[in-house]
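re: ur question from yesterday

yeah so i grabbed the chain u mentioned. its 355 aa long if i counted rite. heres the sequnce exactly as i have it in my notes:
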Amino acid sequence: MTPNPLVGVVFHWLGGLAAGSFYVPYRGVRQWSWETYWLVGGFFSWIAAPWVLGLVLTRDLGRVLLETPLATLGLAWGFGLLWGLGGLTFGLTMRYLGMSLGYGLALGICAVCGTLIPPAFKGTLAAIAATGPGRMTLLGVLVCVAGIAVTALAGLHKERELPAAAKHAAVREFDFRKGLLVALFCGVMSACMAFALDAAEPIALRSAAAGTPALWTGLPKLVVVLAGGFTSNAIWCLALNARNRTGREYIAARTAAGQAVPRLGNLAWCAAAGVTWYFQFFFYTMGETQMGRFRFSSWTLHMASIIIFSTIWGVALKEWRGTGRRTHGLIAAGVMILIVSTLVVGYGNYLAARP
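ran it thru and got these structure tokens back, copy pasting raw so excuse formatting
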């Protein structure tokens, strides 16, 4: 299959739309604590969806995984486990900062680490920078960082402008200091997903050899990597269930105070959130197959797209209500810069793919 970076950009936009939207269904959950609905939704994200779509769209998934060396599986799973810690705290970032500010801070750090560290570790970054298409792609990465900085600045202005009551009305547990610390940890650890997918590449090659169409060869990687993410999240959420005595929420029809729990509704909302979350990497792996020599730039496209769509959701959910014209101008500028960054990265990959 001949790579088509411009099609890859569209796939990454779709992945960003999924990632920027997944948290919205969780707002429909009632009478469940965070650790309960995060784990239920995570099961659909990290176990159910990867296996179902992997079995449907790829060839001989079980045999491919059984024939993959344990070292490859362990490395992919291990990086997935570390990424899971970032995903875990990502939920906390949303909890304390809201969608707009939380995404901007966490994913800014994640974009830089996840894009540049893998090629730097392989020793290919200098070679990439020595070519015209490579410099264009790296310029797109820098533009993305600038866009993230502008959106984060808009979030800072929002923090300064809104009174405490308004901030807590939009984000019930708003806590800027706590959210900032969580976002820093989240951003660094979340970059491990880029390392995990890179380590799992031999799985994709085996899947291609088994007859899987090139567009779907990344799906078997997700089965292993996301199992690692599920491990770390499950341990943490079950520990919180034990500490907070919320383990009964999974089956209880009523709360301790006697309020009815909409169990089927909660399950449906969690399933919607979980499957939507999975589709970010479903489309990511598709986009990655289209990026050609500079597939490392997929991470930048993914991060930029997530911030674009999460910011739009933040505006739609009125998280920016009550802020001034300058703040609205900054957030609009940040989104436009991020859109430009994805086009610049895509163009750099297009130049690299030309004969």
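noticed a couple things. The longest helix spans residues 70-122. also The chain has one domain: 5-353.
anyway ttyl
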